[in-house]
């Protein structure tokens, strides 16, 4: 036990000492005594007993209190020993010694006498449990506990809380505690200084306290609360805007991922691949398959899926190119129909071979959860990873197109096929490589999407129209255009959503693109020069 | 008179002859033979055939734009569905107070959604003439606005295909919304009667079948009239060399707009005839896959022939009926394979095969309307 913790414990004990005679018994710190006291307590003295346990610093104090709250703290009728019920199914219950935590095996439930708890006590218990964590060594646990206390402070914990406040070394935790106390002060005492403390807080409970203060009769308090509320609202608005932007960029990054492969096959090669969505689907199913192969290691499976998804989709792309597209060179409309046929076949294949139902792809631990910025703003981690991944893929593609031999050849063939061939470039090989690259990127998109949406046979269909919109909006044959268009459309969609609803937002975006195409038929960033007239 | 010209063509006469013979044969077999007879055509089959004829008319409309104008519309399902919704609204109003909730004015789904009064765009649909006019006007107006915007800024080729697809997709999403007032997900259904005839009686079904056949005949003659007129020649010129036609002084966008609007109206009529026979219209008719399917019917039959579109539509839908009955899982495989095989191996479609056989028997059948591969690439 660290010195500061010991000190705080001591102080707490001192603070609690005058509360009641029961406190005196705890000095020996004996677990049995504490529990006895709880078990024997009358409804009026239960709280004292709880506080005593909290203040004892006993290593199993939390286990007792939680068991008590869950109705699992029982007393053996014959011996009077206090036990924790581990499993209360059936006639014989598994129990453990409360003090030592030792498993005592099964015991008939008739021999046990539950230590009763009522709702009033349960409420106190929540506060006590939160207080318990305020003494944890980990500042994050302390902060979490302090946040839980917001709005739950009552007379019983107020004094120890203030005591705790004075010696809390970490500013963030102290800040929380101050706010928790201030909520109590504003609501119960109508304190104006406390209102000022709350002005900086984004916690909904703090806002509720301010709102109640606005309704009060004290004009000074009312004015102060109104002012504080205004500043809170301002901050909230900023946070909401940041959140919308984040979701917009996240949706945009998904669109970019889905569309960027298309930008290569459609934009650079002029091939309309309606099966692009199904290549995305293949990538997502590869992730699922990988996780089936490596059960219990979702993270490793996900990382391995990145190359695997690329390969699977790229091979499928090569197969499509060799079997269908090469025969339809220069006939974009026929290519569109044929690849649509391929997409139907792939979809049905997945439905028949795997299942028509959605598959679950597990999100690894390091990708779940969210990054909490403040009470009003928390960013989900998986979306952040996908955003980063999209940017990485984009940068990688840019490098390939600008800095490698393949990129050079692709650009040459795009600009003037005949000329490129007479310079010794194998155009057919370039076609295959380009198509494989575009398809592989679709596979990567699938791997990323498996973390955000359901993996099912219709996964690709949901993205194909959006992807085309992004490519067309950005300007065909321009990777930068795809990036800008994807992020823009994602953000616009999210901005419209709270105002118009998800479906209507989508419709508005579609109509917007249709109108935009009228104005600029070649997209945001049209290709210039001879290639444009293709 | 441009409409009379096609009637003098041998191919049109042949087409109309076969169509009317089929109509008469089905009617006779349905009415004259007793129900147990092996050659008896049941009311179910009559309705099924009527549905195929609706699809055939839709395919003719698509062939008019994709075959003769070079515009691959992936959104014709939208015009079809709009025509269908106009008809559906009329049929809904005809239910009157016989609905489940018995409201004399409001359709059932509006009562269910607690709507207090009829939205303004439902006014007038209790009158048959108004509804039938809307069947033509609504798809026509959408095609006019959309086409005007698109053709004026010279959006053609693949771009146009993609934005027509976006159009029908957006409409599908919109019609799925309950707030739109078109029944949302469930669409419009539970129809009772049309023009006073009970929709559930066999006689009405036969009547609708014959009406569809006649509509197909008229639609065919109208399209044939357009493509054999000077306008049709110009539109084929637009298809093969848009820039050159423009340089010759033709207002390409006007030709495109006219043909596009006519085609949309025909699609609307097809939808309007489809709804009373099928008994329901819902937003799935707007789905992009349906619109693409239509293009494949046309491609299978043979583009720029009109009769090929009819053959393709009937064949594919017959196959669909058979497949979905026998082994539903295989249908999408078959359809997908059809897409691939037709485009790779049968670019001229079935009509192309027929023509090739005719050419080998008597050479020199004159210039054909169908685009050759070389022209299409230009």
What's the short version?
The complex is a heterodimer of chains A (534) and B (378). Chain A is an alpha+beta fold and 534 residues long.
Radius of gyration of chain A (CA) equals 32 Å
Strand order of the largest sheet of chain A: 4-3-2-1-5
Q: Give the topology string of chain B: H per helix, E per strand.
A: HHHHHHHEEEHHHHEHHHHH
Helix percent of chain B reads: 55-70%
Proportion of residues in extended strands of chain A: 5-15%
Low-pLDDT stretches of chain A: 16-28
- Total number of helical segments of chain B? 16
Q: SSE order of chain A in H/E notation? A: HHHHEEEEEHHHHHHHHHHEEHHHHHHH
Overall mean pLDDT of chain A stands at 81
Structural class from helices and strands of chain B? mainly alpha
Instruction: Give the largest chain-chain interface (CB within 8 Å).
Output: A-B, 41 and 44 residues
Q: Tell me the distance between the termini of chain A.
A: 77 Å
Description:
The complex is a heterodimer of chains A (534) and B (378). Chain A is an alpha+beta fold and 534 residues long. Chain A has a domain at 245-461. Chain A is built from 21 helices and seven strands. The N and C termini of chain A lie far apart (77 Å). The model of chain A is unreliable at 16-28 (pLDDT under 50). Chain B has one domain. Chain B contains 16 helices and four strands. Chain B has helices at 5-8, 10-32, 43-68, 76-95, 108-112, 128-152, 157-176, 202-228, 230-240, 242-247, 252-278, 288-301, 307-326, 328-345, 349-361, 373-377, and strands at 188-189, 193-194, 197-198, 280-281. In chain B, the strands form two sheets. In chain B, strands 1-4 form a two-stranded antiparallel ribbon. Chain B has a two-stranded antiparallel sheet with strand order 2-3. The longest helix of chain B has 27 residues, at 202-228. Chain B is globular. Chain B starts with a helix and ends with a helix. Chain A: It is a multi-pass membrane protein. Chain A: This is Amino acid/amide ABC transporter membrane protein 1, HAAT family.
């Amino acid at each position: 036990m660290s010195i500061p913790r010991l000190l705080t414990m001591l102080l707490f004990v001192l603070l609690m000492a005058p509360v009641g005679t029961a406190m005196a018994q705890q000095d020996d710190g004996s677990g049995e005594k504490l529990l006895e006291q709880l078990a024997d307590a009358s409804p009026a003295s239960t709280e004292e007993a709880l506080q005593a346990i909290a203040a004892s610093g006993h290593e199993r104090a939390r286990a007792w209190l939680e068991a008590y709250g869950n109705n699992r703290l029982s007393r053996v009728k014959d011996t009077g020993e206090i036990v924790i019920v581990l499993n209360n199914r059936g006639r014989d219950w598994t129990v453990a010694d409360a003090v030592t935590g030792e498993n005592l095996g099964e015991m008939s439930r008739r021999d046990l006498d539950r230590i009763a708890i009522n709702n009033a006590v349960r409420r106190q218990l929540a506060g006590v449990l939160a207080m318990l964590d305020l003494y944890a060594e980990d500042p994050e646990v302390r902060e979490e506990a302090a946040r839980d206390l917001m709005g739950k402070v009552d007379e019983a914990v107020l004094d120890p809380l203030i005591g705790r406040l004075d010696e809390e070394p970490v500013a963030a935790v102290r800040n929380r505690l101050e706010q928790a106390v201030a909520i109590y002060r504003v609501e119960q005492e109508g304190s104006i200084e406390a209102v000022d403390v709350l002005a900086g807080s984004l916690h909904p409970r703090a806002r509720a306290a301010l709102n109640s203060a606005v309704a009060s009769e004290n004009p000074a308090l009312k004015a102060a609360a109104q002012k504080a509320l205004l500043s809170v609202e301002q901050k909230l608005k900023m946070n909401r805007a940041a959140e919308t932007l984040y979701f917009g960029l996240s949706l945009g990054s998904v669109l970019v991922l889905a569309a960027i492969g298309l930008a290569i096959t459609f934009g650079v090669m002029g091939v309309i691949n309606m099966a692009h969505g199904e290549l995305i689907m293949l990538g997502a199913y590869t992730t699922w398959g990988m996780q089936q192969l490596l059960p219990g290691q979702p993270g490793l499976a996900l990382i391995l899926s990145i190359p695997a998804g690329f390969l699977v989709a790229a091979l499928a792309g090569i197969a499509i190119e060799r079997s269908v597209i090469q025969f339809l060179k220069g006939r974009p409309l026929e290519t569109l129909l044929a690849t649509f046929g391929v997409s139907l076949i792939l979809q049905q294949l997945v439905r028949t071979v795997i299942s028509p139902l959605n598959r679950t792809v597990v999100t690894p631990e390091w990708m779940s959860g969210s990054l909490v910025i403040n009470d009003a703003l928390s960013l989900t981690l998986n979306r952040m990873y996908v955003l980063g991944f999209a940017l990485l893929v984009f940068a990688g593609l840019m490098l390939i197109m600008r800095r490698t031999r393949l990129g050079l050849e692709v650009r040459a063939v795009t600009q003037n096929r005949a000329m490129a061939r007479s310079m010794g470039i194998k155009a057919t090989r370039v076609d295959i490589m380009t198509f494989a690259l575009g398809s592989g990127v679709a596979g990567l998109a699938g791997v990323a999407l498996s973390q955000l949406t359901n993996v099912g046979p219709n996964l690709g269909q949901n993205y194909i129209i959006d992807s085309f919109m992004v490519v067309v909006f950005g300007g065909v044959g321009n990777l930068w255009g795809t990036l800008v268009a994807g992020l823009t459309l994602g953000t616009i969609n999210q901005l419209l959503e709270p105002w118009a609803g998800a479906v209507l937002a989508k419709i508005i975006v579609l109509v917007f693109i249709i109108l935009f195409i009228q104005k600029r038929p070649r997209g945001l960033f049209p290709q210039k020069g001879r290639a444009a007239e293709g | 008179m441009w409409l009379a010209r096609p009637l003098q063509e041998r191919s049109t006469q042949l087409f109309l002859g076969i169509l009317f013979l089929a109509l008469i044969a089905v009617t006779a077999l349905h009415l004259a033979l007793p129900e147990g007879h092996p050659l008896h055509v049941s009311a179910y089959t009559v309705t099924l055939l009527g549905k195929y004829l609706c699809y055939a008319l839709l395919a003719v409309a698509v062939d008019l734009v994709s075959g003769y104008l070079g515009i691959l519309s992936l959104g014709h399902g939208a015009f079809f569905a709009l025509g269908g919704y106009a008809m559906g609204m009329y049929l809904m109003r005809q239910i009157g107070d016989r609905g489940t909730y018995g409201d004399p004015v409001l359709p059932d789904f509006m009562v269910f959604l607690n709507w207090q009064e009829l939205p303004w765009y439902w006014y007038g649909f209790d009158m048959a003439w108004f509804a039938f006019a809307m069947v033509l006007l609504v798809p026509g107006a959408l095609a006019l606005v959309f086409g005007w915007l698109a053709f004026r800024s010279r959006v053609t080729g693949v771009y146009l295909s993609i934005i027509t697809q976006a159009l029908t997709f957006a409409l599908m999403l919109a019609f799925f919304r309950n707030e739109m007032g078109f029944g949302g997900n469930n669409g419009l259904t539970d129809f009772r009667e049309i023009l006073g005839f009970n929709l559930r009686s066999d006689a009405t079904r036969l009547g609708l079948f014959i009406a569809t056949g006649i509509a197909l005949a008229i639609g065919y003659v109208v399209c044939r009239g357009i493509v054999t007129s000077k306008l049709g020649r110009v539109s084929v010129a637009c298809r093969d060399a848009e820039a050159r036609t423009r340089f010759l002084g033709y207002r390409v966008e006007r030709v495109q707009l006219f043909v596009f609007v006519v085609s949309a109206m025909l699609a609307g009529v097809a939808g309007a005839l489809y709804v009373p026979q099928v008994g329901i219209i819902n937003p799935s008719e707007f789905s992009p896959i349906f619109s693409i399917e239509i293009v494949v019917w046309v491609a299978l039959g043979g583009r720029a022939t009109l009769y090929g579109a009819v053959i393709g539509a009937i064949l594919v839908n017959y196959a669909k009926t058979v497949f979905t009955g026998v082994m539903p899982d295989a249908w999408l495989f078959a359809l997908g394979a059809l897409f691939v095989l037709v485009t790779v191996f049968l670019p001229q479609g079935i009509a192309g095969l027929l023509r090739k056989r005719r050419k080998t028997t008597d050479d020199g059948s004159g210039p054909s309307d169908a685009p050759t591969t070389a022209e299409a690439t230009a």
